[in-house]
Specification:
Length: about 500
């Protein structure tokens, strides 16, 4: 009798490494990351992927982020040791300025005044921050001992806030590393961003950034209501997070996900109202100060409006700049919406979110150095390429140094130590051009989706939640014809079949 044909043994249960898709490794896919990895032994090897240790990507990235945050605190050491108090120009020449210690007394926390309810001495009258940020500041004041000299209390207040902001940093990096399941190492861009470390303790923006990152993580997991609630809290801490609803509505429109869009907007409005309504009713003047201050504030540091004002014999009024800035922002939002509806493939959520927030920064009448924190997580998700990210970061670091040198020049009297007006205008231009460059490469990725590194592995929108893999139902322009003639692939994105049988996005 013929012998029975032997079949290779099969395993009933594949290993975990076979069941789960392996994470994307920048040291293998990004030439800059590969070159940088030579400092620690070179790109990760094939067998390293089979090892399971305590050192997961998320934990490594979080520890790196905390280490960079600590280095940023060390950079503020000259001010902590006296430059905040010995004179105005000293804190600028050391590039270690922070709003936090100055506002401890300047906004009544040292005297136990209640934000929004108690009037402040001087012209400000009330705290000019959104309600949830005011609560963050107040909690830090509760944790600051009231003993010792005022300078000692201010230093402790800064240290308490730094500890709370360090927690926010950990939240941001963990959320970003988990949004794209197969690309956790993209969060290393956030952790190692030099501008992030330099500006983290200038103000309280990291609190809103952490809430926004947590909201985006919830959206990536399909938890629409949780996304809305967290985004509403983020908007109660800073105004910019509400801008993310615009890209979301455009993408949901294109995918026909109206129920999710309405739920997200309703959750955002509900959370914002829960936080703001009590203060709005009980202390309406204090609550409105943030909005009236934003409207009445003149052209200030970092904006192209400042360059125009400094170079014009008859600069525009604040009211005129408000109207023009609003018009430019609306035009930019319209452009992003058209891009989202006409792109050959539906853009990823992070791409449009980055473009809208960048548009707000570029058109606004003021750009404080810490505003870069708004963009860092979005940039890491929208364009996770080290070369482009580092080019942009170099421009932001140049601006960080430029504004302090300019302030040193204006506060050093006849000595004129620092950067003159013309030099500061160059620093502003560098910041604007760096941001525009990153916007340009994101737009290129949208118009040429085959160049998007996130989609090269066959994924659609890993951070898009309910949008990930959803087919288009409303498309404008030539993309509409492509979607009708194409065939939806396993991810729901329309593709055309080539003559050889392979597909191209």
């Amino acid at each position: 009798m013929p012998s029975a044909e032997k079949t290779p043994p099969t395993r009933a249960h594949p290993s975990a490494s076979e069941r789960e898709p392996q994470p994307a490794l920048p040291s293998r896919q990004d030439e800059v990351a590969a070159a940088g990895s030579e400092l620690i032994g070179g790109p990760v090897g094939r067998r390293a992927l089979l090892l399971t240790t305590w050192w997961t990507p998320v934990r490594v990235i979080a520890l790196v982020a905390l280490g960079m945050f600590a280095l940023g605190m060390v950079q503020k050491a000259p001010c902590y040791n006296g430059a905040w108090f010995v004179g105005a120009s000293s804190q600028y020449t050391h590039a270690c300025y922070s709003d936090i210690p100055h506002l401890y007394q300047g906004r009544g926390f040292a005297d136990g005044l209640v934000p929004y309810f108690d009037k402040l001495p001087g012209d400000m009258r009330y705290l000019e921050y959104p309600v949830l940020t005011g609560l963050f500041m107040e909690v830090a004041a509760w944790l600051t001992p009231g003993s010792g000299s005022l300078q000692h209390q201010e230093k402790v207040y800064w240290m308490v806030n730094a500890g709370m902001l360090m927690v926010c940093t950990a939240v941001i990096t963990v959320c970003v590393s988990r949004i794209h399941r197969r690309r956790p190492w993209d969060a290393l861009l956030v952790a190692l961003a030099p501008a992030f470390a330099l500006t983290a303790t200038i103000n309280w923006d990291l609190f809103a950034v952490a809430l926004t990152a947590a909201a985006m993580l919830m959206w990536s997991r399909g938890r629409v209501v949780a996304f809305g609630l967290l985004l509403g809290l983020a908007t109660a801490a800073k105004l910019y997070p509400v801008l993310l609803l615009g890209p979301l509505l455009v993408l949901c429109w294109r995918a026909g996900k109206w129920r999710e869009a309405v739920a997200a907007c309703a959750g955002t409005a509900a959370a914002w109202l829960v936080v703001n309504l009590p203060v709005m009713l009980l202390a309406p003047d204090g609550w409105a100060k943030f909005y009236s201050f934003s409207r009445e504030r003149g052209v200030d540091f970092g904006s192209f409006w400042l360059i125009l004002s400094q170079r014009m014999d008859d600069p525009p009024t604040t009211d005129t700049v408000n109207k023009l800035a609003m018009a430019l922002m609306l035009l930019a939002c319209l452009g992003v919406a058209v891009l989202g509806l006409t792109a050959p493939r539906r853009p990823r959520f992070a791409q449009l979110a980055f473009l809208v927030v960048a548009a707000f920064i570029l058109t606004n009448k003021v750009y404080s150095p810490q505003y870069v924190l708004w963009l860092v997580p979005l940039a890491a998700l929208a364009r996770p390429r080290w070369r482009d990210f580092l080019v942009w970061q170099a421009c932001e670091v140049a601006y960080f140094l430029g504004i302090w040198m300019y302030l040193a020049y204006t506060t050093s009297g006849d000595a004129h130590r620092g950067l003159p007006t013309e030099g500061y205008q160059v620093a502003i231009a560098v910041h604007l051009l760096g941001t525009l460059y990153l916007c340009a490469v994101v737009v290129r990725d949208i118009l040429m989706p085959e160049r998007d590194v996130v989609r090269r592995t066959g994924e659609d929108d890993p951070g898009g939640g309910v949008l990930d893999g959803a087919p288009d139902v409303f498309v404008l322009g030539p993309a509409a014809d492509s979607s009708r003639s194409g065939t939806p692939d396993h991810e729901g994105a329309y593709v055309k079949w080539g003559s050889s049988g392979d597909r191209s996005p």
